[in-house]
């Protein structure tokens, strides 16, 4: 059997499984964007620690290391590129609002041709995520030929930031008494450009990672509590 199946890749595999479930549920007629967001948060949690878990095995071969890098990028494209776009598709279909609050669209749907613009944003977002990941892989391979250790800065916003960005946007639904579908896609468009920008982003250390994980867990709890009350 080809591939690697030891504990160093389990979190990456779990992230992909979570992303796939989120995509399938978001695309179902009865699927809801807030359910998709839970799977996105789980993907973010897996990604926060997959690299650190992999590095605990000191005798990894070069093949295992390269394999880990490749599946990490492939999983990230699905989890933080395709899944947020599918959640956006669920936003268009469901248009979630607080009960009895006037919607920004007519008869429960965003009118044509506005929906085409939103689909274009989704496509651009996924494309930008793929470009960002491919660029990182190539530049990281080149960097390792001349430098040792991990990099200190990223060029462009890391795609994994989607795990915090979009859950935060959906949390605003319970602060803003209007449909936030257009806000979601506005943030997606800005994120698209940040993925492929030359913005220098400092790589977070362990403390930074734990803070982001804490934010993600808090978002998960708030969403679960809010939906549970309704």
Largest sheet strand order: 1-2
Q: How much beta, percentage-wise? A: under 5%
| Helix/strand class | mainly alpha
Q: Could you state the oligomeric state of the chains shown?
A: single chain
Order of helices and strands: HHHHEHHEH
- Total count of helical runs of at least 4 residues: 7
Give the helices and strands, then pairings.
Elements: H1 10-27, H2 33-54, H3 62-94, H4 114-146, E1 153-155, H5 162-171, H6 181-195, E2 200-202, H7 206-229
Antiparallel strand pairs: 1-2
Structure commentary:
- This protein has 230 residues and is mostly helical.
- It is built from seven helices and two strands, in the order ααααβααβα.
- It has helices at 10-27, 33-54, 62-94, 114-146, 162-171, 181-195, 206-229; strands at 153-155, 200-202.
- It has a two-stranded antiparallel sheet with strand order 1-2.
- Helix 1 packs parallel to helix 3 (62-94), helix 3 runs antiparallel to helix 4 and helix 4 packs parallel to helix 6.
- The protein is globular, with a radius of gyration of 18 Å.
Short description:
This protein is mostly helical. It has helices spanning 10-27, 33-54, 62-94, 114-146, 162-171, 181-195, 206-229; strands at residues 153-155, 200-202.
Which characteristics define this entry?
two-stranded antiparallel sheet, mainly alpha, 230 residues, single chain
């Amino acid at each position: 059997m080809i591939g690697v199946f030891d504990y160093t890749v389990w979190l990456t595999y779990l992230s992909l499984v979570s992303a796939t479930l989120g995509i399938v549920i978001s695309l179902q007629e009865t699927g809801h964007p807030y359910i998709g967001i839970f799977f996105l948060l789980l993907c973010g949690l897996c990604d926060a620690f997959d690299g650190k878990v992999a590095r605990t095995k000191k005798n990894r071969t070069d093949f295992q290391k390269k394999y880990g890098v490749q599946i990490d990028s492939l999983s990230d494209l699905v989890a933080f590129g395709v899944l947020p776009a599918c959640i956006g598709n669920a936003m268009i279909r469901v248009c979630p609002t607080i009960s009895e609050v006037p919607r920004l669209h007519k008869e429960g749907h965003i009118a044509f041709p506005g929906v085409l613009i939103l689909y274009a944003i989704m496509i651009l977002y996924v494309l930008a995520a793929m470009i960002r990941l491919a660029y990182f892989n190539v530049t990281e391979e080149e960097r390792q030929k001349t430098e040792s250790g991990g990099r200190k800065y990223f060029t462009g916003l890391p795609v994994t930031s989607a795990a915090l960005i979009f859950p935060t946007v959906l949390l605003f639904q319970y602060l803003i008494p209007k449909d936030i579908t257009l806000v979601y896609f506005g943030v997606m468009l800005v994120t698209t450009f940040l993925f492929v920008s030359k913005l220098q982003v400092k790589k977070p250390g362990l403390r930074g990672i734990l803070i982001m994980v804490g934010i993600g867990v808090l978002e998960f709890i708030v969403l679960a509590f809010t939906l549970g009350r309704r």
